[in-house]
What we know:
Elements: E1 39-42, E2 45-49, E3 65-69, E4 72-75, H1 81-91, H2 96-100, E5 102-106, E6 118-120, E7 123-130, H3 157-166, H4 174-182, E8 209-210, E9 214-215, E10 245-251, H5 259-271, E11 274-277, E12 297-299, E13 308-309, E14 313-315
Parallel strand pairs: 10-13
Antiparallel strand pairs: 1-4, 2-3, 4-14, 5-7, 6-7, 8-9, 10-11, 11-12
Protein name: Sulfatase modifying factor 1 (C-alpha-formyglycine-generating enzyme 1)
Pfam family, one: FGE-sulfatase
GO molecular function, one term: formylglycine-generating oxidase activity
Amino acid sequence: MSEQDKPGGGCCSASRNAETPLPVADVAIAAGVGARAFPIAIPGGRSHVGANRPDIPLDGEGPLREVKLKPYALEAQTVTIARFREFVETTGYVTEAERFGWSAVFAGLLPEGAEVSGNASGTPWWVRIDGADWRHPEGPLSSIADRLDHPVTQVSLADAKAFAAYVGGRLPNEAEWERAAHGGHRDRKFPWGNEEPTDEKIFCNIWQGRFPTQNTVVDGYFGTAPARAFTPNDGGFYNMSGNVWEWTSDSYRIRSLSKHAKQRNAQAVEQNEQLLKGGSFLCHISYCYRYRIVARMALTPDSAASNVGFRIAYNAA
């Protein structure tokens, strides 16, 4: 396994690892009238997480474990830029990327003339761009005007939680996220079934070609796609593979007694790493096979990037 395929190796997204964490923004949460978007009710009951034959065991994809869930609802799509803008305009919320003054951007998305102030060690496709935030996902020279229906990106865990509070919801946990991704089926590898996507056969927004230098864009999108692009799974959920990684409410942990798991969990605790699900438009089977349902990624909670967003869950009434 190459360095970029190792857990935390940086192929999927880049952790901020800021020297001084920022305090959570002080914001008055207003009731988000009409702000819920297509929540789908899911009955409680027996479900499961993970797989007995994981493709990337070091990520903690296995073993399969049975869980019991309470009834809940999950939005059919990720939170869009338009909805996040409404939240910001209503509350005056300032994201962590705005307060840090920079964020991580995939180098292939940079507009002409963009100034790079650093890059992630070992993953030069992740660069530090001053002024990158949710309004300017690739830095000051970029705009959101033509992608308001795309997932909001450049949002940290605190930003996602603040929006969730605004609409009266919360982030889903891993078990809830996986149940929705399975769409009512137990043994699916992907939200649409078990058929592998290829550079020619398209099911979702992932990379086609040779990463990171060539993207043939067969799926129609070099970066993010609209939140309701592609066919939803049998449960009605859009883009649970690819497009953007999604924050969850769970801390990142590996359920194993192996030496690797103990060391990795110690690191995760030290850095307060959070679990994300779903993969992104940067995933490809040749180097980052993490657009499967059981795939997982860890980021520090203050991180934000070009390929990280979220969707909202709700407790049953």
